[in-house]
Amino acid sequence: MIESLLFAGTASGQVGIGYHPAPAIYGRASVEGRPLPNIGAVGTGGIESGGYYLKRMGYQPLEVVPTDVQLEKAPFAKLMQEVKAGFGRTMTRLPEVFGVSRQTLYNWLEGETPKEAHQAKLAQLAEAARMFSELGFKPTSLSLDRTVSQGKSLLQLLREGADGREMAKKLVRISQRATESRAKLDDLLGGRKARLDVSDVGTPSVNESA
Fold first, then answer.
1. Got the DSSP string for 87-108?
2. Among 16, 39, 71, 100, which residue has the fewest nearby CB atoms (within 10 Å)?
3. Rounded CA gap, 131 and 107, in Å?
4. Is residue 163 a contact partner of residue 124, using CB atoms and an 8 Å limit?
5. How is 34-99 classified by DSSP, letter by letter?
6. CA dist., res. 135 & res. 66, Å (int)
């Protein structure tokens, strides 16, 4: 009975028990000039965008860093490069300045940030290295043990926070004076080396048990 009323109402153009006839869509409507559909409610303060829905699906945005920024060395790594160039092989002595291991220095060289207590000392060490490079001075382990000021060596002074550039200058001057003194002594000796005489050593005793 209901079905007959529905079909009857539909066929005659009359409304049957609350149902209204709707025309069928036979073609695809043009979308030109029509706004995109609104995809759900974002919520208070939200911004509806593609990124918003990607985040809701579990996707996280990736930060793209330019290549030139990725390759840029940290400032302390650059200081360590200067230290390595200025001190050369004697770099193995430099942990004395900080009271750290050799591996720690190599970690700084690779970009690790030193503790705040070491940063100022590293800056002064780099200043000393620059001075060595400027003056063409190649420090040796022996020269690093020379007394520079206040009865202390360069490394001891840098450990206490001394001015790296000034202390390096002093060490170079002291080393140059020592070299000049040796050259003068060689001239006085005529390039000869002193030979030991038997009297300098002493006569061996006949009685071995004596």
1. HGGGGGGTHHHHT--HHHHHHH
2. 71
3. 24
4. yes
5. PPPPP-S---TT---SHHHHHHHTT--PPPPPPHHHHHPPPHHHHHHHHHHHHHGGGGGGTHHHHT
6. 38
Contacting residues for 51 by C-beta, under 8 A, at least 6 apart: 61
Query: Cα Rg for the chain, rounded, in angstroms?
Result: 43
Kindly report, residue by residue over 147-160, the tens digit of the pLDDT. Answer: 999 999 999 999 99
Segment 65-75 shows an average pLDDT of: 50
Angle, helices 116-135 vs 75-87, to 10°: value is: 40
- Mutual orientation of helices 102-109 and 75-87 as an angle, nearest 10°? 120
- The token pair at 103 is 């591996």
Q: Considering the entire predicted model, what is its pTM?
A: 0.56
- pLDDT higher than threshold 90 for residue 67: no
- The ranges assigned to domains in the chain are 71-189
